[in-house]
Write a structure and sequence with these properties.
The protein is α+β, with helices and mostly antiparallel strands. Helix content is about 35%, strand content about 25%. Strand 10 and strand 11 form a beta hairpin.
Length: about 475
């Protein structure tokens, strides 16, 4: 029998610990909200508070469940600069824009899209952009840095003491990786950063141990495994269940859509299309938008279920939410808004859910998805997201997992794979379509409006 594994699934909004037994069952979970605080003119992570929480919860999991291994799955767009045993600079929040004069200067340094498959994006959505920003703020900073660590590898380092790199995170629209060369990008070499990039370890490899003192005074070592990018972890999980030709819709703060069957030359950098890189170094065509964040903003923070009746009312009244309620995504350059009759409460949430479903549908068309779909993550919990998408895309079979924490389960699957185990069984269900009169006409009207918005964007760019 294998002891349970502790997986820290570290999201931007929520960070979670899952304890996963040797039969693949989640037997315990806890969560916290990371604290992002102001540090002068920049917003940074309170890493000490998060580390304290992680240590406490790990100790509890060891005592309660006999955990002997730990693993990390981390949200994208984030990095750490370290030297010795300390951070050289606090970890910065990717949702902040550099000053305009600096942004103009650093954006000119970005590699060509067809080298890195990282589109030009605002804020720190390409974390190489924020790395350039910190370098512009303090040109001595990187010189004092011994290692530039992707976010999951920061936590691998905190618990194991080993500074490492990992390809799925570096290949996640960072400007730092050239997928077709399977090597660092020209930006890394132009800036002299290659010596700051630690040696690679595969996601899930055992890389060290964390000594832990328990409440009764006993000491034990917990094996530390190299972390992984969260959405790539979910992709690995569903592949490990036997899915072959499929499109993954990974949902959380972001809706990230991977279609391994799409050729890379289909990617349009102006629509937040990019190549991610799997844990096995393979580029994968991807499109994304900030769906979880947009739903929260557009719905005014609605957390209750949305009923079919509320969806029907919104469709009957022809109330629409139009993009975009957050930065990035395939409809950039527009501010999210509602048109038609005013909606509030559950009906506003219903309009927001329809919007997220229609944005997903649009994104699937843009990425050329015609194969089976697998939906993972937080939006599964809304109840009607999968049935709505099934109704919108009748030609594709849609699968959902009864435990929609694919990033955490994928991280555990990587550890189990490293120790020669394969405990997970495919428990995905096929979603049934929602039956809502007028949905097709509503979709057509919404798509016509967003296509006109996109045409307006093109006209403005041509005039500029």
């Amino acid at each position: 029998m294998t002891s349970p594994i502790a997986v820290f699934d570290l999201g931007k909004t929520n960070s979670k610990l899952f304890v996963i037994a040797d039969d693949g069952v989640v037997i315990d979970e806890t969560r916290t909200r990371p604290v992002w605080r102001d540090d002068g003119d920049i917003r940074v992570l309170d890493d000490a508070a998060l580390f304290d929480w992680m240590k406490r919860e790990l100790a509890r999991a060891v005592e309660a469940h006999g955990v002997t291994r730990m693993m990390f799955s981390g949200h994208g767009c984030t990095f750490a600069l370290v030297a010795g045993e300390r951070l050289v600079h606090p970890i910065i929040d990717y949702e902040q824009e550099p000053p305009a004069d600096i942004a103009e200067r650093i954006d000119a340094m970005a590699p060509d899209f067809y080298e890195t498959f990282s589109p030009a994006l605002p804020l720190g959505f390409n974390y190489g952009r924020h790395l350039l920003w910190l370098d512009a703020r303090d040109p001595s900073l990187i010189g004092k840095t011994q290692a530039i660590l992707p976010y999951p590898q920061f936590w691998t380092w905190k618990f194991s003491g080993r500074a490492l790199s990992e390809v799925s995170y570096l290949g996640c629209h960072s400007h730092l990786w050239a997928p077709l060369k399977d090597d660092f990008s020209s930006l890394v070499d132009r800036r002299g950063w290659r010596p700051k990039m630690p040696a690679f370890a595969k996601a899930g490899d055992e890389v060290g141990h964390y000594p832990l003192t328990l409440s009764d005074g006993r000491t034990t070592d917990v094996a530390v495994h190299n972390g992984v990018h969260d959405s790539n972890s979910a992709l690995y999980y569903y592949r490990s269940l036997g899915f072959g030709d499929f499109t993954l819709i990974s949902t959380g703060t972001w809706v990230i859509i991977f279609n391994p069957s799409s050729p890379l030359d289909r990617l349009d950098p102006g629509r937040d299309m990019l190549a991610n890189v799997t844990v096995d170094h393979m580029p994968v065509a991807t499109i994304r938008f900030m769906g979880g964040r947009e739903y929260d903003v557009a719905s005014h923070g609605w957390v209750k279920p949305v009923s079919i009746d509320a969806l029907k009312a919104v469709i009957d009244r022809q109330a629409f939410a139009l993009p975009s309620f957050a930065a990035g995504g395939p409809m950039q350059g527009h501010d999210g808004r509602f048109i038609g009759p005013a909606v509030d409460g559950e009906e506003r949430a219903a309009a927001a859910l329809l919007y997220i479903s229609l944005m997903t549908d649009l994104s699937l068309d843009l990425i050329g998805s015609q194969n089976a779909l697998v939906i993972d993550g937080g939006l599964v919990k809304t109840g009607l997201y999968a049935p709505l998408l099934t109704a919108l895309r009748p030609g594709q079979t849609i699968h959902t997992s009864s435990n929609p924490e694919g990033s955490a389960l994928g991280a555990a699957a990587l550890v189990f794979d490293a120790i020669g185990k394969s405990p997970f069984a495919n428990d995905c269900a096929i979603a049934e379509p929602a039956t809502i009169a007028g949905l097709d006409d509503y979709r057509h009207a919404w798509r016509q409006m967003v296509e006109e918005m996109q045409d307006d964007n093109g006209r403005k760019e041509r005039r500029a």
